[in-house]
UniProtKB/TrEMBL annotation:
Carbon 2 of the heme B porphyrin ring is defined according to the Fischer nomenclature. This is Protoheme IX farnesyltransferase. Its EC number is 2.5.1.141. CDD domains: PT_UbiA_Cox10. The keyword Cell membrane applies. It is found in: Cell membrane. GO terms for biological process: heme O biosynthetic process. It holds the Pfam family UbiA. The lineage of its organism: Bacteria, Bacillati, Actinomycetota, Actinomycetes, Kitasatosporales. It comes from Streptomyces mobaraensis (strain ATCC 29032 / DSM 40847 / JCM 4168 / NBRC 13819 / NCIMB 11159 / IPCR 16-22). Coiled coil: none annotated.
Length: 285
């Protein structure tokens, strides 16, 4: 199970299922929800396993990843690679026959993007790795919509953008916390190459855009008052935390007093609450 990065998959499915409720304007076919979740787990799990296979050298250098199965020797590289390939192929076939071909292609695209574009190309080369590499994590919202509607809509694209702009300010605080790990492994995460002040400034910028994009659903007619209230309240609290982090960074505060993980933990709560509102809103309109 550890090879599939289950905690990451939880977040991906947390954004997938609510979009299915939004697309169905109520309760979607529960078999379809189950099929989509299982296919999504297999697809994301395969990508996660490929990531562990490719990054096994740098994982051994970082405290945060030093207990991963390939580093400890619990799983051999060959076993991991076969496992990853099996999950990727299996998920594509699963989506194709039990959901629809469009969702299968989107799922395969997300897996390949994470594996090739992020893991193999961007991660070790640019501080913008998590920005563009995060596209793979945005696709589950489109997959959730396509599973129900067999199409891509403006609603799914807006939610795609919400996750796109959410990903950097979600991950950069964690990167600030463990930047020594990344520096030791030679991974040019933004906190390693730019410093806390510059990172905090980028976090605030992305946060404002994310909140603004999240509010587009209602004027376009996809959501109503309930989603809007949740988006405004959660977005407002996010911006408060982002600006507070920037203020601490500007003041030169470092170490535990920087409290960068407050925003990281809130970012998970934020996306959970926002997408719960996405699922509930159709029942209140």
């Amino acid at each position: 199970m550890a090879l599939t990065k289950p905690r990451v998959i939880e977040l991906l499915l947390m954004t997938t299922v609510p979009v299915m409720f939004l697309a169905a304007e109520g309760v979607p076919d529960m078999w379809l929800v189950l099929a989509t979740c299982l296919g999504g787990y297999l697809s994301a799990g395969g990508a996660g396993a490929f990531n562990m296979y490719y990054d096994r050298d740098i994982d051994a250098m970082m405290d945060r990843t030093s207990q991963r199965p390939l580093v400890t020797g619990m799983v051999s590289p060959r076993e991991c690679l076969v496992f990853a390939a099996a999950l990727t192929v299996g998920s594509t076939v699963w989506f194709w026959f039990l959901v629809n071909p469009l969702s299968a292609m989107l799922s395969l695209g997300a897996s390949l993007f994470y594996t090739v574009v992020y893991t193999m190309i961007l991660k070790r080369r640019t501080a913008q790795n998590i920005v563009w590499g995060g596209i793979a994590g945005c696709l589950p919202v489109i997959i959730g919509w396509s599973a129900v509607k067999n199409e891509v809509s403006w609603a799914s694209l807006i939610l795609f953008l919400v996750i796109f702009f959410w990903t950097p300010p979600h991950y950069w605080p964690l990167s600030m916390k463990v930047k020594d790990d990344y520096e030791r492994a030679g991974v040019p995460m933004l906190p390693v190459v730019a410093g806390n002040k510059a990172v905090a400034r980028q976090i605030v910028l992305y946060s404002w855009v994310m909140v603004g994009v999240s509010l587009l659903l209602t004027p376009l007619g996809y959501t109503g008052w309930f989603y809007t209230v949740v988006a405004v309240a959660c977005g407002g609290f996010w911006l408060k935390e982002a600006h507070a982090l920037q203020a601490r960074a500007k003041a030169g505060i470092t170490g535990a007093k920087l409290k960068e993980m407050r925003l990281f933990h809130w970012s998970i709560t934020y996306v959970s609450l926002l997408f719960t509102a996405v699922a509930i809103d159709p029942f209140l309109r």
